[in-house]
Amino acid sequence: MRNKPIANVNADLLKERKNCSFDIEELTNLIDGGKNQTARRREIENMLLKNMPFDIIPEECLSAKEKYENAVRKSVALNKIGVELVSQVTKAKELSDLTLTLRRVSDAYFREVTPFLLHLGMFIPTILGQCSDEQVAHWLPLAMQLKIIGTYAQTELGHGTFIRGLETTATYDERTEEFVLNSPTLSSSKWWAGGLGKTANHCIVVAQLYTKGECYGTHPFIVQIRDMDTHMPLKGLKVGEIGPRLGFQTADNGFLVFDNFRIPRDSLMMKHAKVLKDGTYVKIARHSKLTYGTMIFVRVLLVSEMAFNLSKAVTIAVRYSAVRRQSELKPNEPEPQVLDYLTQQHKLFISISTVYAFQFTSNWLMKTYHTVQANMKHGNTDALPELHALSSCLKAICTSDCSAAIEQCRFACGGHGYMISSNLPSLYAFTTATRTYEGDYTVLLLQTARFLVKTWEQVELGNAVTPMVAYLARHQNREAWDESPEGIIRAFEAIAAGVYQTESVRSVSFGQSDAIKDVMKQLSDLYLLYWSLERTGDLLTTLKSTLGSYDGRVYERLMEEALKSPLNQEPVNESFHNEPEPQVMDFVSQQHKLFIGIASYYSYSMTALWLWDILTKVTSELGVGKTDRLPESHGRAVFMSVFNSEMEKSVSSLSAPLQAVLRQLVELYLYYWTLEKRGDLLLVLQSTLGSYDGRVYERLMEEALKNPPNKEPVNESFHKYLKPFIQGKL
Length: 730
Ligand SMILES: CCC/C=C/C(=O)SCCNC(=O)CCNC(=O)[C@H](O)C(C)(C)COP(=O)([O-])OP(=O)([O-])OC[C@H]1O[C@@H](n2cnc3c(N)ncnc32)[C@H](O)[C@@H]1OP(=O)([O-])[O-]
Ligand SMILES: Cc1cc2nc3c(=O)[nH]c(=O)nc-3n(C[C@H](O)[C@H](O)[C@H](O)COP(=O)(O)OP(=O)(O)OC[C@H]3O[C@@H](n4cnc5c(N)ncnc54)[C@H](O)[C@@H]3O)c2cc1C
Description:
Elements: H1 11-18, H2 24-32, H3 35-51, H4 64-88, H5 92-109, H6 117-130, H7 133-144, E1 152-153, E2 169-173, E3 178-182, E4 190-193, E5 202-211, E6 214-224, E7 237-241, E8 254-258, E9 261-264, E10 273-275, E11 281-283, H8 293-323, H9 342-377, H10 384-411, H11 424-434, H12 441-460, H13 475-478, H14 485-507, H15 514-534, H16 536-540, H17 554-564, H18 588-613, H19 615-622, H20 629-651, H21 656-676, H22 678-685, H23 696-706, H24 716-726
Parallel strand pairs: 1-5, 2-5
Antiparallel strand pairs: 2-3, 3-9, 4-8, 5-6, 7-8, 10-11
This protein binds (2E)-Hexenoyl-CoA and flavin-adenine dinucleotide.
Residues 117, 121, 152, 154-155, 160-164, 194, 289, 292, 295-296, 384-385, 388, 437-439, 443, 447, 450-451, 454 line the site of (2E)-Hexenoyl-CoA.
Family: Belongs to the acyl-CoA oxidase family.
InterPro entries: ACOX_C_alpha1 (IPR055060), Acyl-CoA_ox_N (IPR029320), Acyl-CoA_Oxase/DH_mid-dom_sf (IPR046373), Acyl-CoA_oxidase (IPR012258), Acyl-CoA_oxidase_C (IPR002655), AcylCo_DH-like_C (IPR036250), AcylCoA_DH/ox_N_sf (IPR037069), AcylCoA_DH/oxidase_NM_dom_sf (IPR009100)
Protein name: Acyl-coenzyme A oxidase
């Protein structure tokens, strides 16, 4: 693991490494958190790697059954050493460093994941976060020493996102002082829990708690599911593996069905609520969502997990790009390294800076998490809503960006990137799942939006808000976003970028050499510039805001808009009489994801027919242009115009309703891509720099003079605040 000299290193790689402008060891220390941490990490890694058995046949060449068995074999070997190491540690910081090192080694050890992932990642954290002190004293040593192996079964066939809709019931029977677990419907079957299929003998089960005929909502229970000796499922349970999936092949994700399965009263995890022997329900928590605590913890963890997984993918792709040579640029000269192509750098360098963005943000987020936890120990839950919003938003964005970036890394490796042995497909499969599990991307962004809207209301009322969202109250920033979902999301992206910038500057401000500082600054700038270019359309959008209009008629405009709402077009909504659960198809965000697929299908089929006739012409046209973006726009324009015209030709003989549907698809395709690429469109069409007459400087000045702040020589805030402040009278 240490940078030992290795024989037969590729000459191009050696050359690239010699060009490095900074000391690699210094950067390694920065990432690890200091020299001592680097040394300790290497010591543990070397010890583990020396003592662990390796694969004889590559994991990917085994059958599903063999893969699972091999994963258990390796997990046991790793955990045996892990338990030993953990038992030697006394300080909390050492334990957290060790746990991270074990997690990272485990990552290098398994191409897929260990079946113990949920035990370490959710079972133990839930014991810590949801059990009473006595329960922790009982369960934690058993779990830490792996005397029991647990998992976390919350999701059911019918519900993952909507936790309050879970159907598994835990009904208290005061005669026997037991809870009775039942799965009343097929859709209430627990589904997905990692390690449940074959490995775990204990399980945290989230179920609706009933006592004395009342339902008190979802609560976590700790439940033994298999015999400790025979490992057979206990009577009253149906348990198994859910079947092949994308990635997670060795995680043995499972299902679990209860049939009048009895568990003792103290199986209820009683930190936040308890049920007394006589069945009385006692609420302890000061915040109703404290039972969701493990999810927050894992969302926080995932930011650093994404940094790590992307760092692996981009290291693979950058090394390979240095080695790979392709195309003849000048006759009789060597083919260039693909890393030298600007387009290749465009694909890869953003991933490098993203790794640092995620890692610095993750360090900060973890600190914030611990601070909020410490406050909650003293009964103060004030910061929990913001932590929830922040961890939801950062989890959603980093998992989504990470899987997209890993896919870019794979593209950057051409055909060989498709090979399982490159590890890029496995990295992609693992990270793309993170976008869904522990809270779906869209759903978590909507949670954050909910928090931002509430904060915005406070800002409007002139009330104080927390420092993280204080920018909402500043006039200039208010103009940088609007109240649309994209605007709200963008505002939070701005926070993430801001954290990265301040944290990276803080982390490199002492100790580190100028060379490292320069590189970190470049990476930070790249990240900010990349995203401001990616989101040019958003940045250029006009305000479109009821709150930020020039004339300040905020309340009038809010009322006008409210009256336009379809909900206000009928005095009583039908949900008053009847409240069906919505189909996910009814969510506009879901339709946004799906309908473009239908429209694209028709667009591609129409264009394919047309393309067949004029293949040669199109091929030469697509060759025009020097960057990725122009041909992409060109290709899209071709799809749009062909789809539009060919569809018109072919629908004329169809019935009117079908014609209408097909025309809607054309419109959807055109509008979708207009919105997706509005940055490109606005840059081309509404630019001071790209006008037909080339009067760039004149136009820049004209635009500047139109700027409202230039309409008055001195702003009134000078008299109100700045002057008294300067004169010491404030
Ligand atoms: C290796 C693989 C491992 C994978 C494992 C898994 O996937 S395990 C399975 C992982 N599964 C998932 O991750 C499932 C994802 N689903 C969920 O997390 C939730 O069901 C939900 C958050 C979407 C909605 O929950 P809901 O319907 O109960 O809530 P609501 O929307 O009606 O909002 C009411 C209020 O509650 C607030 N609030 C909400 N959460 C929190 C919180 N944690 N803290 C603090 N506050 C929170 C919210 O802001 C709002 O506040 P306001 O505005 O009234 O002041
Ligand atoms: C690899 C993997 C491992 C997992 N491991 C575990 C585990 O160990 N334990 C466990 O309990 N669970 C586990 N899960 C389950 C996971 O937590 C859920 O799949 C996840 O929370 C999403 O829920 P869902 O599947 O019900 O999706 P749904 O909520 O049904 O989502 C379907 C679509 O509906 C949309 N949608 C849903 N609600 C809304 C809304 N309110 N507004 C707008 N759009 C909405 C979503 O955006 C999505 O596009 C795992 C899942 C995976 C993929």
